[in-house]
């Protein structure tokens, strides 16, 4: 149990204890907020011993809260507009799965309806209205889509096969998670990795962000 600070005005713990953060499918931006909480705990003298977060719903991420912003901008040279494009395309990783295509065939649709996928876009911030950022020409810049409009056509994906859209959607999810991985390693100071913990047939959201303290003893058989 944590002991209260000796100085009531101090935010530091007098006797911090090691903690481990564990969550199953922490939706979208909630993963970023949880990682920021762990950073705050360490800043107050606490110790994070381990992390195991099953990631999901990348379409519900917000760039303002995304922990990988420094990596996204400094390492990749990308912007908030690029993040919004990638965020929307993550829906293809669920909406274009074989199971989703079976439902599509039963409905008689020609293309996967990614607007009905498991990854819902993040709620617009105040003042942004009910629009989503989509891909535009290099000259005109990003264009705006009305909320609920399928994003495939906006990204020039009319000629894409469902398999290609599925592959691109997975890559977009991995790109967002790579920024989180960099944050855990560089800011939290933990060893970390992204692992697949089950088959996609069991769950399309099968990526686990796992991290452990650098001084953790090696596990022996």
Automatic annotation (TrEMBL):
Pfam families: TRM13 (PF05206). Residues 17-211 form the Methyltransferase TRM13 domain. The keyword Amino-acid biosynthesis does not apply. Residues 129-142 have a biased composition (Polar residues). Residues 103-126 have a biased composition (Basic and acidic residues). Keywords: Metal-binding, Methyltransferase, S-adenosyl-L-methionine, Transferase, tRNA processing, Zinc, Zinc-finger. InterPro entries: Methyltransferase_TRM13, Trm13. It comes from the Eukaryota. Its EC number is 2.1.1.225. One of its GO terms (molecular function) is tRNA 2'-O-methyltransferase activity. The keyword Heme does not apply. GO terms for biological process: tRNA methylation. Belongs to the methyltransferase TRM13 family. tRNA methylase which 2'-O-methylates cytidine(4) in tRNA(Pro) and tRNA(Gly)(GCC), and adenosine(4) in tRNA(His). This is tRNA:m(4)X modification enzyme TRM13. It comes from Cymbomonas tetramitiformis.
């Amino acid at each position: 149990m944590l002991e209260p600070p000796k100085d009531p005005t101090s935010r530091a713990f007098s006797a911090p204890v090691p903690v481990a953060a564990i969550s199953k499918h922490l939706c979208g931006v909630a993963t970023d907020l949880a990682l920021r909480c762990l950073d705050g705990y360490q800043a107050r003298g606490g110790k994070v011993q381990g992390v195991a977060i099953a990631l999901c719903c990348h379409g519900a991420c917000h760039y303002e809260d995304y922990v990988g912003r420094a990596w996204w901008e400094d390492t990749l040279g990308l912007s908030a507009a690029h993040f919004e494009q990638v965020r929307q395309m993550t829906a293809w990783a669920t909406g274009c799965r074989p199971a989703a295509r079976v439902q599509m065939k039963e409905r008689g649709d020609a293309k996967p309806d990614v607007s009905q996928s498991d990854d819902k876009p993040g709620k617009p911030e105040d003042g942004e209205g009910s629009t989503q950022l989509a891909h535009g020409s290099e000259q005109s810049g990003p264009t705006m889509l009305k909320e609920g409009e399928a994003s495939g056509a906006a990204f020039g994906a009319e000629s894409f096969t469902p398999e290609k859209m599925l592959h691109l959607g997975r890559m977009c999810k991995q790109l967002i998670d790579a920024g989180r991985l960099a944050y855990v390693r560089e800011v939290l100071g933990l060893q970390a990795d992204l692992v697949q913990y089950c088959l996609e047939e069991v769950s399309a959201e099968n990526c686990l962000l796992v991290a452990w303290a650098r001084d953790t003893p090696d596990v022996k058989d």
